Amino acid sequence: MKVTIKNWNAIAQWRWDIGKEFDETDDEDLCGICRVAYEGCCPRCKMPGDDCPVLWGECGHVYHMHCIMQWIEQQPPNKQNCPMDRKPWITAERKTANTATQQTQAVQS
Amino acid sequence: MAGIASRRLQKELKEIHTQGCPVGIQLLNADNFEEWHLSLEVMGESQYQGEVFALKFRFEPQYPISAPAVQFIINEKYKAPVHPHVYSNGHICASILGNEWSPVLSVIGVCVTLQSMLASCKKKERPPDNDRYVMHAPDNPKKTRFHYHDDTV
Amino acid sequence: MASPGVQALVEAKWQSAFKTLNREEPGISGLLKTSQARQLASDFLRPRALSEPRRKYRADVMANAFRLLYQTKQLHGVLENFLEEMRQQRHLITEDVEAYMHEYEVRPYAFVLVTEVHETADSQIIAQLVHRLVEWFNAWRPTTETDGHPGPLESLGHVAIDSYTDAFQTHIYSVLPPSFSSGFKDLIASTLPVSDPAPPPDRALWDAFHALGLIERYESLISSVCYELVEKHVVETCAGQWSERMLQDLRDWMQNKVLPWMCLPYAPGARTMEEAGASLHGVGPRFDFHVCKTLCDLRTSEIFDIIVDYPDSIDALYDLKECLYRVDQRSNLVQSLRKANKKRLLHPGADTKDILAQYVSTIRSLRIVDPPGVLLYKVADPIRRYLRDRADTIRCIVSSLVGDNENGESLIDDEPPLPYLTKDAEDYSDPHWEPEPIDAGPDFRANKPGDVISTLVSIYDTKDVFVKELQVLLAQRLLAVTDGNYEKERRNIEILKVRFGEQALQVCEVMLRDMTDSRRIDQHVQSQKPSILHPVIISRHFWPSLQSGSFVMPQKLRSIQEEYAREFTAFKPDKRLVWLSHMGSVKLELELQDRTIEAEVTPVAAAIIELFSEKDVWTAGELMAQMQRLDKEHLRKGLNVWVDLGVLKEEGADKYRLLEVAEESSKKEGTVSAPKPKELPAVQTTQQQQAEQMRVFWNYIEGMLTNLGSLPLDRIQNMLKFARGYDRSIEQLGMFMEAARREGLVVVRDGMWRLNK
């Protein structure tokens, strides 16, 4: 018997690639600031995904971009730290498996 | 902008309801997203054995980006603990409520921190500048620029 | 011995009397004349049998005689004498009455089934009796009309006629037996203008009634004949006739048919309607009220079916409204409808969507009858409470919200959606403000409904449940869309936003956007590297819980997924894909030795058949081991797809063989196409979960009924309460049993359930 697939309508979920292996049973990862799942959206947004992306810190912590930016922006320049580890916040350039070692830059505005 | 604070607090409240509070901490009142009351008790051996305190949290719309205003409640039922970082009007001199605030902290997180602050107290005494501070203190402790007594809490 | 003085006095008196009697005539000639006059009058007045021939009297002679008697002051005595003689003669009348009544009563068919004909025959005897009595009445009446001209009887004075009439009527009433009244009623009824055109009225008969005073005496009886006429007519013409206004027709009928007839008893002698108007002044409104009351009673008894027929029955509802203005029977209406609803609607056998449809019709119907909504509030309460307890109510409401009814009817039709808000305070500046009706309850205003949908939604305390259900429904529908046309869903969401608020429907917005994004992404991926795979990429947290659990796809299928995922990540570098492998559909072609089969199947079935392309025989256990994390249920379903298509064959215990060559029985010509899987995407509804749980309890029920024969629902419910984890209401149990009955598992009789053997 020869099986030929003609067409396949499938359903998939997208996830932020936060650098860890997908596990079926994992607890949802939450943004520490708004406590909403990364794949959800921050309190200011209505649409998840590209409209409400997440930012990776050099330190490895991940937040909704809008959440961490709002925090950083209202801190004095010498205290723009990651809320988790209080180390200076440096946004990582896409901390994915294939692009992990790209140059990093601090987010300042 | 009612959104941020209320949505975050909603989540915290849900968590409290589903997971419960840590030992010694109880939610007294969280009828709105502006002010919550919790009771605080130091478990095990401590200077405050048998004493129950109450905390008042006041939230601004920007919470958790902005820190909550936290103080001990003083009324017929509750007194402020006698502690080197707690003024007799209930105001608390703790860096995590001021410049060390982090948006990843939560109401329960603050309670736990204050609980351990009390637990680690060796000597029950008021801050040295208590009388002077209390005389001029604003109603909201967030309006005060504390000089933090030490950075260990 | 009397003294001379006394003698003189007596003498003088005698002389005076004599002079009066003798009318100052000489000698006793005057006295003689008086005596003759008296003789003449007595003979004239004497009551006699009708058979006895009556002498002719000359009017002028009689007039003279009466005048003489009057002048000599003897008239009174003559009349006394007449009445006394009447008393002695009245047995003649009595005998007559008895004879007629005997005939009336012994007519055998009077006791047989009463039909028109018999009634008429019977009442004709009464009519004859009435005419006979009038004959008596006229025969004995002290008048000189015997020669056809009204004589100067007025000299006798009205007093005389009145006392005669009184005496006569008193007598006949005392001798008429009780059966007369029913006969009389029949007789009156026979005069009713029931035929069209009505025959001219029998005036002689009505004159006779008036002469004998029967109208006054039997006034209530005549009224009741008329009431019965109205009732009969209303029921005959209006019962079940809901598609036109009837009240005006009824009033016209009263005006044109009944009123002229009513003139006969109530306005005798009136020649025109204007003349009659005055006499009928008090009677007309009374009967108009009765028309309204009868129609109101009829419509009240029919109200449930009228509502079923809405909107075809709108006219009946307008009639009812008008009747209720006139007749206050609002509470009757409420009770009647509540009772009918309980009996016919709110029971386990009724489908939720039917209950909802009837509820919606009830809302619309009662708003016509009672715009303030008090009646609706009272009627709706039990329906709402019942619906709240039904598991599938929300689902039904939501389906109808998005126009998903099987018959294509949506509950949202003509009404513009009102914003989701309720006014608490009364707005007295509203020119249409009206005070609350007096039968409104204290909590009435607060529940005043907006539009139908908000009324339905308000069955529940929170609209969240709807949004959740809506999400499930939308998910099913979106995932079933294959042509990329989501316009209908988008429009529905827009409508619902107005109702539930934008915030609540945000998740639905995200779902819609996922759909369009997926299409865009797929176009991009296909342009980079064509694939037969076309996924819908969804945002988790925004979709209802979909069937997850990832089994291991065979290598060939898995590499298709992986390739697509790689292209996706290249396009969206921050994102990865997680496949929900259970969901979706696969179109494939099987080339077997003797045939080619095309089929569109679930991914599980596709995975299974892919494994069979490696090896012809698999056991269920081997397949499970190969695919991992796949539950038996899905495996069995997947295998069955191919067994049904004659591709696989079950051989012994859980062993399946690929049929490279079709077996005789299932051999088909050329290419076989399998029907597309009909199932909706496996989005779990709360109802499905409940139904599944309920099946567990079926074992208990079956055991119970096996051991105990038949049981009423409440017993079953009480016994099930001992089962662990049983938390169903008796309503839910009822629905379940009803479903079991439809499946032929049980039968119910007089509320007792037993197993169907």
Structure in words:
The complex is a heterotrimer of chains A (109), B (153) and C (757). Chain A is mainly beta and 109 residues long. Chain A has a domain at 49-93: Herpes Virus-1. Helices cover 8% and strands 19% of the residues of chain A. Chain A has one helix spanning 65-73, and strands spanning 2-16, 54-56, 62-64. The longest helix of chain A is centred in the middle third of the chain and has 9 residues, at 65-73. In chain A, 38% of the residues are buried. Residues 95-109 of chain A have low confidence and may be disordered. Chain B is globular and about 40 Å long. The longest helix of chain B is centred in the N-terminal third of the chain and has 17 residues, at 3-19. Chain B starts with a helix and ends in a 17-residue tail after the last helix. In chain B, strands 1-2-3-4 form a 4-stranded antiparallel beta sheet, with helices on one face. Chain B has 153 residues and is α+β, with helices and mostly antiparallel strands. With 757 residues, chain C is mainly α. Among the domains of chain C are: 20-217, no CATH class; 222-327, no CATH class; 555-673, Ribosomal Protein S5, domain 2 (2-Layer Sandwich); 686-755, Orthogonal Bundle (Arc Repressor Mutant, subunit A). Helix content of chain C is 59%, strand content 7%. Chain C is built from 30 helices and 10 strands. Chain C has helices at residues 4-22, 29-45, 59-71, 75-89, 91-106, 116-140, 157-175, 179-190, 203-212, 214-217, 219-238, 247-266, 273-279, 283-309, 314-326, 330-344, 352-369, 374-389, 393-401, 452-457, 464-480, 487-500, 506-528, 555-571, 603-612, 620-627, 632-644, 686-708, 713-720, 730-742; strands at residues 533-538, 575-591, 596-601, 617-619, 648-650, 655-658, 672-673, 711-712, 746-749, 752-755. Chain C has a 3-stranded mixed beta sheet. In chain C, α11 (219-238) runs parallel beside α14, α12 runs antiparallel to α14 and α21 (464-480) runs parallel beside α23. The termini of chain C are far apart. The model of chain C is unreliable at 110-120, 145-152, 405-409, 413-426, 444-449 and 667-671 (pLDDT under 50). The chains are: A mainly beta (109), B alpha+beta (153), C mainly alpha (757). Chains in contact: A-B, A-C. At the A-C interface, β1 of A face α23, β1, α24, β2 and α25 of C. β1 (2-16) of chain A pairs parallel with β1 of chain C, so a sheet runs across the interface.
